């Protein structure tokens, strides 16, 4: 009884700590840096979703940047063409990307491993051209600039946002929005992983043959995994569009898909806590690379080298490291990691 | 636009309220300016524009600065992604509290921040893009001004030259599918005038494409003998290489953005010297690889600054551009008065008459007026001969 109570108390303390950090982090950094934190939160959401697909269901996707594009452009198009307020577009951004995610999950029914990666990669490569083609909706090569074409749909245009009588700067609002949704998404993901659906996902990942013989409908499981990870990516894309107040094909090249996968792998496939580290890694690495040196070509080199070094040192990602560190605690306190 | 300005005006007041006597970014000893430039990604060749300017400012500071103030120039990486440009520009304004945004690179990139900067009345000075809109739309965006001869005017020069010298040419155009490429194409049509039907084929490409192989093939198939390359360096090099692979040697007009000596050098190495020989472009700077300028005092100054203040590769004409625009900024800052404000420097930038820029071609003036917001509107034609650009003919006014 004693040890178990201690274990539960530890969990409660951890959750409380997370909420305290969430509430007060913006006070620790300058107002503008809350924006960078918000962007890390955006990556966190996309990475949590991708982790569900790749880490837990074992389906490789190199196309999630394109799903972020779907979400981002849904938000931008709704703001500019239909005059929706930015925050209210986010659920629809997620839903649209979820539907598209479901559709790109269909090839997964026949392909696996490298071939699935290539199929999703093709989608990512095609996305900028697709965006330019439907220029009536997407603004073509110029993209959509919400500050010019939909300024009154932007929350916090004047610099302050007031919610339930509580006032904050626009940058803080973006942080609370991104990480608030991130924590909720994390919770949903955590519950999903522990539920029957999560076990179905892991069964598909570990052995498709065994899963089928256990009565699992592979088609349903795979497409659902794609769809739900698409929803996360779409929400992330919508938040990115809201934050930057601009969408442009150059933001959503295949490199974004690779960045998301890097974040997921560095965070640790199949580990939810590691995703926070993964998100911060992909958020801050470009700046760090530029700080090392601005000589031509060097920032890109440093970026690639950093990823390689991390993969060599931590092949199972940060999540793997956390699991190893936490194992003594979890075995002694009868807790699962 | 006015409502937007009003809404963001509250923000401007909030940020300005902190400094009672002096302007944001200006102290008694320093003027802080900032911009964005691609330090990573596949447009990173353009960063010399920022680095050349930075070296020039260091030289100016070593000689006392302007009105006893040193110029601190900060540039951030946007990877040529307009949403990163928006983010980093906000950082420069809100976090670093710069006096003005200076020398940010890229057409789409500067368009991404133009509305924001104008709404909060932060000068967007000497944008490193030749898109016509930066000089044309000053009534709507009074805090924005460009620098280089605009793309439409450049296209017009090529059109006029072709109409006069090659009335029977079969012209094909490879152009980037954005404002930059379309501006050049519109200028070409404008310059050709009645002979616009000489354009037999137009092939566009996207910056996110991997290559222009199929576009070059289609241009060859249309029996084009004069190829207009309205493309950024990576794709300009490719057009030479793929034309060479198809054993096709049209007369090439390459736009100024891709005419830098190192770009042409790579193209010549990849496609052979015969392929690039005879290419035509425009020039408004003293190209450091043109032997004509070896003894020129302006070029000598350029080389000494590049060496002493570590500006990068001295044979890179983008660095010369950087020094020229920095020189013009210094002129505007001097004109802005002993206690410069954002409004006063904007006024100075639109009342320029600088005749002594050591980095521009002789005879060129940096001139702006209340109604003329194009600082540089002169250029010469130049021909690529035996690995060097040689200018010919007179100085055109490119309006």
List keywords for this structure.
heterodimer; A: 337 residues; mainly alpha; two-stranded antiparallel ribbon; 4% strand; B: alpha/beta; Rossmann fold; 2 domains; five-stranded parallel β-sheet; 14 helices; 14 strands
Compact description:
Chain A is mostly helical. Chain A is built from 15 helices and four strands. Chain A has a domain at about 20-255.
Descriptive report:
The complex is a heterodimer of chains A (337) and B (399). Chain A contains 15 helices and four strands. Chain A is 74% helix and 4% strand. In chain A, 51% of the residues are buried. Chain A is mainly alpha-helical and 337 residues long. Chain A has a domain at 21-254. Chain B has 399 residues and is of the alpha/beta class. Chain B has helices at 2-16, 48-62, 82-95, 107-119, 133-136, 151-165, 179-192, 213-221, 233-245, 261-271, 273-276, 297-308, 317-335, 342-349; strands at residues 30-37, 70-77, 100-102, 124-127, 144-146, 171-176, 199-205, 226-230, 251-254, 280-283, 353-354, 366-367, 378-385, 388-397. In chain B, α2 packs across α12 and α2 crosses α13 (317-335). Residues 13-20 of chain B have low confidence and may be disordered.
Protein topology:
The complex is a heterodimer of chains A (337) and B (399).
Chain A: H1 2-28, H2 33-56, H3 64-82, H4 90-105, H5 113-133, H6 135-138, E1 144-145, H7 146-149, E2 160-163, E3 166-169, H8 170-194, H9 196-206, H10 208-213, H11 218-244, E4 246-247, H12 254-267, H13 274-292, H14 298-313, H15 317-332
Helix pairs in contact in A: 2-8, 2-9, 2-11, 2-12, 2-13, 3-4, 3-5, 3-11, 4-11, 8-9, 8-11, 9-11, 12-13, 12-15, 13-14, 13-15
Chain B: H1 2-16, E1 30-37, H2 48-62, E2 70-77, H3 82-95, E3 100-102, H4 107-119, E4 124-127, H5 133-136, E5 144-146, H6 151-165, E6 171-176, H7 179-192, E7 199-205, H8 213-221, E8 226-230, H9 233-245, E9 251-254, H10 261-271, H11 273-276, E10 280-283, H12 297-308, H13 317-335, H14 342-349, E11 353-354, E12 366-367, E13 378-385, E14 388-397
Parallel strand pairs in B: 1-2, 1-3, 3-4, 4-5, 6-7, 6-8, 8-9
Antiparallel strand pairs in B: 10-13, 11-12, 13-14
Helix pairs in contact in B: 2-12, 2-13, 3-4, 6-7, 8-9, 9-10, 13-14
